[in-house]
From TrEMBL, chain B:
Subcellular location: Cell membrane
Protein species of origin: Streptomyces pyxinae
Keywords: Cell membrane, Membrane, Transmembrane, Transmembrane helix, Transport
UniProt family annotation: Belongs to the binding-protein-dependent transport system permease family.
Protein name: Carbohydrate ABC transporter permease
Lineage, highest ranks first: Bacteria, Bacillati, Actinomycetota, Actinomycetes, Kitasatosporales
Span of domain ABC transmembrane type-1: 104-294
Record-linked PROSITE patterns: ABC_TM1
Keyword Membrane: yes
Chain positions covered by the region annotation Disordered: 1-26
Length: 493, 308
């Protein structure tokens, strides 16, 4: 019997397409899973509460018991749930509230001391501030990205594949995401991809050749020019190759693609050519001021031609150390600016005290932008197409349609996504716990982490831990009230 | 609401009050060209974003496939120029590692019961709230709805005390019960609303056939609730599988689930990526398989659980 009725019900259940009320996704179960309806259901707040047409089967009087159940049976059905909820959810709330008014030992009444401590203790105050940053920034960025992705994927055929990629991080644990981003944020640019990219971009614009200890020998045609720069003793002349030998660079520190230095030749057309090279032959045998066969070029070394204190031309040495200056540099002194002798740029300290919170928020956005995207995309699919099309026909640009039509119509969905993410972010724990290295844990602190530390960790103080948990609870109460009122409104209809 | 915006000079003046689909096709060649170029830019942008989003995971995957020496020496992207570096050695080591394999078993022993219990207990209560009459039914249901957003943090200290007193602190049973309790408000909310939409006639017909309450529940309600139960089950399964905080506090420290086992490794982060990376990937396999196999159910579970 059950087997026969199943099919009938799945197909025959009321399809509240487009008219589902605020409880949308959750209450319209049969609709979203109707065979063949591949679309995702509209999120529950596809409309503002109470604005939708009445639900098919929501009103209480219409749903009298079919069976005339005895109360004992009803109690039997409810008992396991109520016992668990009572013992493990409701009772703990009461206990936490109670415990939050007692001191560390739990013996004497402490009034509001624990709450005061939250806002006076430096470590906890950092957690409060960070939580504030989290709650403001993370949901906003994730929702904005979700909106952009949802709108753009509508226009491409492989939008689903894109959505899958962005949504995928939702399925994995915050622990795994934490490990993934510990790897991304590794300081060493040779290992952490964030710094590898960052250093790459940085060096494109402000390249430092990175020869910190390079210097000329007294026999070399270079002398110190003050401020860490070196300058040639004699002006250069077209027709005579310029020699810029340096020592003091470990061969291992040369760029990987440094090639044997080019033997200097005089340039034609009045241009000035020369070679900057490491005037040192490993194992000995090289002569100073001579480009010996196994000596290599100083790639990336910057050369400035200076006349009367003004830079008239610049050049950068190639992999073989050769460089070319225009004829205007004839008679100039060649200067190797001090920037050549900086340590190589090593990237950003992502997990250092000042950037650790934004860095972890980045990993959160990576995980949750997909969530925002999917909910917003569902809301988008439920929008009346005629409105968008009408605006386009009236000559509105895509941006105007987006700004004046799509976003206002989506406002209820955006609000749900934002609020959901805020609740989620309020309790953020795993990512911070995993990504922040121990040394900056205090700088990255958030309330849930502090709660863990106060309750089970090194800062043991159950009073403060309980106070934090009560604070978290207080912060979600508006949402709780909103949920309850929404459901009440629905069931009154 | 204003749906019209001032038209750019290039397009013909809009016809007020009329927006037949036909005029939608008639756009100036310049506008169409711009749209096509815009479409190209959108595609490029999405491809770049997609690659960007994949990169962290790919980085972990490729790191997990390199030897400790290679990991220490250079970044995972070197693999693209030196594919010979790839090795499954780390995975072999991880799967030979009793701590990791044991923790996978622990995870399973926590996740499966916590999922089944939530589905069963939640269905019973959801059905009672949907189709049974008892005093204060709607008030009870509103109370459950109120519990939807209660943060688990509020229960950590009190429940660890409670469990300590009854002797199930740091046991699998304790973790399972905790997860079940905190999964219930959502389960009841979702299933009650779903069950409430079952056509009354079906239940009445079954009743006339002589089915009792329990029979009705098992033979009619549960099968009809299949889709919602699937969403709930998948959602809860992933939730519990991926949990670290609750396991960190309540799980048996001698048999920790995979998340806790890996968390302990993270403290040594830096010289143990050859364990962490494959370990993290192993822990992700089941969720990813579930995710790709049951995308639709997962999505509707996530959407329904938006308030959680």
């Amino acid at each position: 019997m059950a087997a026969e009725t199943t099919g009938g019900a799945a197909g025959g259940a009321p399809r509240a397409e487009g008219s589902n009320g605020p409880a949308g996704a959750a209450t319209s179960g049969p609709r979203q899973d109707t065979p063949g309806s591949g679309r995702v259901p509209a999120p529950r707040t596809g409309r503002t509460p109470g604005s939708g047409p009445g639900r098919t089967r929501e009103a209480v009087p219409g749903r009298r018991s079919v069976t005339g159940t005895r109360r004992a049976v009803a109690a039997g059905f409810l008992l396991p749930a109520l016992v668990l909820l009572g013992a493990l959810v409701v009772y703990p709330i009461a206990y936490s509230v109670y415990r939050s008014f007692f001191d560390q030992s739990g013996d004497s009444f402490a009034g509001l001391d624990n709450y005061v401590e939250i806002f006076t203790d430096d470590t906890i105050l950092t957690a409060v501030k960070n939580n504030l940053i989290w709650v403001v920034v993370a949901p906003t960025v994730a929702t904005a990205l979700g909106l952009i992705f949802a709108v753009l994927t509508e226009r491409v055929r492989w939008g689903t594949a894109f959505k899958l990629i962005v949504f995928m991080p939702m399925a994995i644990s915050m622990l795994a995401a934490g490990i993934i981003f510990r790897l991304v944020y590794e300081q060493n640019p040779d290992r952490g991809v964030a710094n590898a990219v960052w250093v790459g971009v940085h060096d494109t614009f402000a390249e430092s050749a990175g020869y910190p200890r390079a210097h000329p020998l007294p026999v070399h045609p270079l002398k110190a020019a003050g401020g860490g720069a070196y300058i040639t003793k004699e002006p250069v002349r077209a027709g005579a190759p310029a020699l810029l030998p340096l020592v003091g660079v470990a061969p291992a520190d040369l760029p990987g693609d440094a090639r044997p230095a080019k033997r200097p030749e005089a340039g034609g057309d009045g241009r000035i050519t020369g070679t900057a090279w490491l005037d040192f032959t490993r194992g000995g045998g090289g002569k100073p001021n001579v480009v010996d066969p196994r000596e290599r070029g100083l790639e990336g070394l910057k050369v400035e031609a200076v006349k009367d204190g003004r830079v008239v031309a610049t050049a950068t040495a190639g992999p073989d150390g050769s460089f070319t200056l225009p004829a205007s540099a004839d008679g100039a002194l060649l200067r190797l600016p001090e920037s050549n002798f900086h340590e190589r740029y090593n990237g950003v300290d992502w997990l250092g005290p000042s950037l650790v919170t934004p860095a972890i928020i980045g990993s959160y956005v990576w995980m949750w932008a997909g969530f925002a995207m999917v909910l917003i995309a569902a809301g988008l699919a439920a929008l009346p197409r005629e409105l968008l099309e009408a605006a386009r026909v009236d000559g509105a640009s895509e941006w105007q349609v987006f700004r004046r039509v799509t976003v206002p119509l989506l406002a209820p969905v955006l609000a749900v996504v934002l609020v959901t993410l805020m609740i989620n972010v309020l309790k953020i724990f795993d990512l911070v716990f995993i990504i922040a290295p121990g040394s900056v844990e205090d700088d990255a602190n958030v309330l849930a982490l502090q709660l863990y530390r106060s309750s089970f960790g090194t800062d043991a103080h159950l009073g403060v831990g309980s106070a934090i948990s009560v604070l978290l609870l207080l912060l979600v109460i508006p949402v709780m009230v909103f949920n309850i009122r929404r459901i009440r409104k629905e069931s009154r209809r | 609401m204003t749906t019209t915006a001032p038209p750019p000079a290039a397009t013909p003046a809009p016809v007020p009050g009329r927006a037949p689909a036909a005029t939608g096709r008639r756009r100036s060649p310049a506008a169409r060209l711009a749209a096509r170029a815009g479409g190209g830019a959108v595609r490029v942008f999405l491809v770049l974003v997609g690659l960007f989003w994949l990169m962290p995971t790919v980085g972990l995957l490729l790191s997990s496939l390199r030897s400790p020496a290679d990991i220490a020496a250079s970044g995972w992207w070197e693999v693209f120029t030196a594919p010979a570096q790839l090795t499954t050695e780390n995975y072999a080591n991880v799967l030979r590692n009793d701590t990791i394999t044991g923790s996978l078993l622990s995870t399973l022993l926590i996740t499966v019961p916590a999922t089944v219990l939530v589905v069963v207990i939640g269905s019973l209560a959801g059905y009672a709230f949907a189709w049974m009459e008892f005093p204060g039914r709607d008030w009870w249901f509103l109370a459950v709805v109120g519990l939807l957003v209660v943060p688990v943090q509020v229960a950590l200290v009190p429940v660890s005390r409670l469990f300590g007193e009854i002797g199930i602190f740091e046991t699998t049973l304790g973790v399972v019960l905790f997860h079940t309790a905190f999964g219930l408000p959502f389960a009841i909310f979702l299933l009650r609303n779903f069950f409430a939409e079952i056509p009354r006639e079906l239940l009445e017909a079954a009743r006339l056939d002589g089915a009792g309450e329990i029979r009705l529940f098992v033979r009619v309600v549960m099968p009809l609730g299949g889709p919602a139960i699937a969403s709930l089950g998948i959602f809860q399964f992933l939730w519990v599988w991926n949990d670290m905080l609750i396991a960190l506090i309540f799980a048996d420290s001698d048999a920790p689930p995979i998340t806790v086992a890996l968390q302990q490794q993270v403290r040594q982060f830096g010289n143990n990526i050859d364990v962490l990376a494959p370990g993290a990937f192993v822990s992700m396999v089941i969720p990813l398989v579930v995710f790709f196999a049951f995308q639709r159910q997962f999505v509707s579970g996530v959407m329904a659980g938006a308030v959680k």
